[in-house]
Amino acid sequence: MRDHEIIVIYGEQIQNMAYEICRQAGLKEMILGKCSSYEAKIILKPNLLGPVPASEGATTHPEIVEGVIRYLQEAGFRNLSVCEGSWVGDKTNDALLVCGYDTMLKRLGVPFVDLQKDKSRLVDCAGMKIRICEEPLSADFLINLPVMKGHCQTRMTCALKNMKGCIPNPEKRRFHQIGLFEPIGHLSAGLHQDFILTDSICSDLTFEDGGNPVAQNRIFAAVDPVLNDAYCLQLMHLDESEVPYIRIAEQCGVGMADLSRAFVRILKEGAGEDGKVCYENTEAFPERMTHSQMKEKTAGLIHVSELVHEVDSCSACYGRLVPVLRELEDEGVSVERLRGICIGQGFRGKGGRLGIGSCTSGFERSLPGCPPDEEKMKDWLCQLVKKLGDEEKKAGSSGENSLQT
Ligand code: SF4
């Protein structure tokens, strides 16, 4: 596979698609070309941010991981493992079970390394020191298996941001404190990814923790994470100014973002003469979401996120609040009353009116938890809207009374 190439495959047989794209990319030759050995330590890094099944659009389909493992094992590679560290607030092990990885990996005889329990060390990432887990750093060949999806803080997440699962939890919190774009842009300069296979089967194009899956029936492969993410921008109708970490990564020497220099090859699933599934080159670009459809899908979330005052919040915290607000709004709750509600590490030790999470414990009204539980958050906010409504009415009627007297 060439440096500036992207191979896209459309279909419904997910495991076969993953296997075929590895074959089309010449993955075996790439590994032997870099490592010259069938004993090379090959590590696969999916996205298992939390216990959310892949059908919800947030995590990597286990069928993709199985397709890649099957290809590698048939090619003769034996030193394989899968690693991941879920986001702050969820246990990787829960994600492993709910997402169906536990039984699949046992069946295939491939070990799993929980990066939430791994050691880490400081690595120079193009001038920025970042603490990275030891396991992914020890790979001879690192295969990144991200999901192309929306993100409440960075608008989009794919190959570059998926590497954030390879840093320890305190470092994840620090990323949020210093602003996500800069460290995400730098991270891949210190943790090289050799091959990327993006899950774009049914990802949630609005939010990283899923719930609004959109059928896309697509997987694509690249060797350059910057080019891969620039391609995602195009697919998601986003402007590069909305996702600045792609340019930052390019400036750090991670890859190239110029899509006009990319060679995109598209394959489509079909039936061969023998009735078996086959994949053929196609010129036609299968139908995808239009710009206006995309804007329509994200509009509601952008609207409710405008109610929130967020400073350095963790994804797990903010990523729960915005969908909860959207749900409440859909249920007819007057979420407008919550305008100005605060969330994030920037409010630690400060006072205020309404706050979410233990970072806002000094506020008049604050929901405890780090991050707070989603169900509790919904109940608390619902009650809060009612109380604020009652207080408004009371203040209104006492105002009327005082005018009358
Ligand atoms: S309470 Fe603060 S530290 Fe905890 S998850 Fe939320 S923003 Fe992060």
From TrEMBL:
Quote the InterPro entries the UniProt record gives: DUF362 (IPR007160)
Which Pfam families does the UniProt entry name for this protein? DUF362
The DUF362 domain sits at 42-233
Highest taxon, organism lineage: Bacteria
The protein's name is: DUF362 domain-containing protein
Originating organism: Porcincola intestinalis
